Amino acid sequence: xxxxxxxxxxxxxxxxxxxxxxxxxxxxxxxxxxxxxxxxxxxxxxxxxxxxxxxxxxxxxxxxxxxxxxxxxxxxxxxxxxxxxxxxxxxxxxxxxxxxxxxxxxxxxxxxxxxxxxxxxxxxxxxxxxxxxxxxxxxxxxxxxxxxxxxxxxxxxxxxxxxxxxxxxxxxxxxxxxxxxxxxxxxxxxxxxxxxxxxxxxxxxxxxxxxxxxxxxxxxxxxxxxxxxxxxxx
Length: 234
Known about the structure:
Structural class: alpha+beta
Radius of gyration: 23 Å
Largest sheet: 6 strands, mixed
Helix content: 25-40%
Order of helices and strands: HEEEHEEHEEHEH
Strand content: 15-25%
Strand order of the largest sheet: 1-2-3-7-6-8
Shape: globular
Low-confidence stretches: none
């Protein structure tokens, strides 16, 4: 097995190298400001034609105010964080009802032999998911989507509270990692600029709100049901 090449995290580079990278990123931000915003750039593109519900997270780069720091950031909405928590709870419930069998790679790679019985190669075979009585006659996927929607429908605010925060990670290669969760209706250029302004105003430090996002701001159904127009989980 080929291991991923090792690298020196940005946080451990010399100040000289950090400054060089900073200047280069500053030029990239300026070059792409008409595409993104005056304070950030990204490897990814906005898709304005998509509905707002689909624009709930985005990865981008911006600069710290110290002249050396690059932030390799992910901004996630509280809505997205809420869905992730509910999905995990649904997966945990499915495991509780019917634990997954031990994974064996031989179960998905099937040998193919020639006419002489000699092994030619392996082919990947995806087994069709079967309904299970433990899941009420549903497949695992169907059960998880059903249970997730039920959790959301029955939530009064205590099932999966979501907190806003800025969390930093110094192990990233191209900057200081920053994962931000904020209560936003959509992630776009405007809300990213607002997040950057908030982060800078708070001293460019980790932060965790002690008060959860109001439950009234949370989605009232699962992403799948909302995007497909399904009204109820039955």
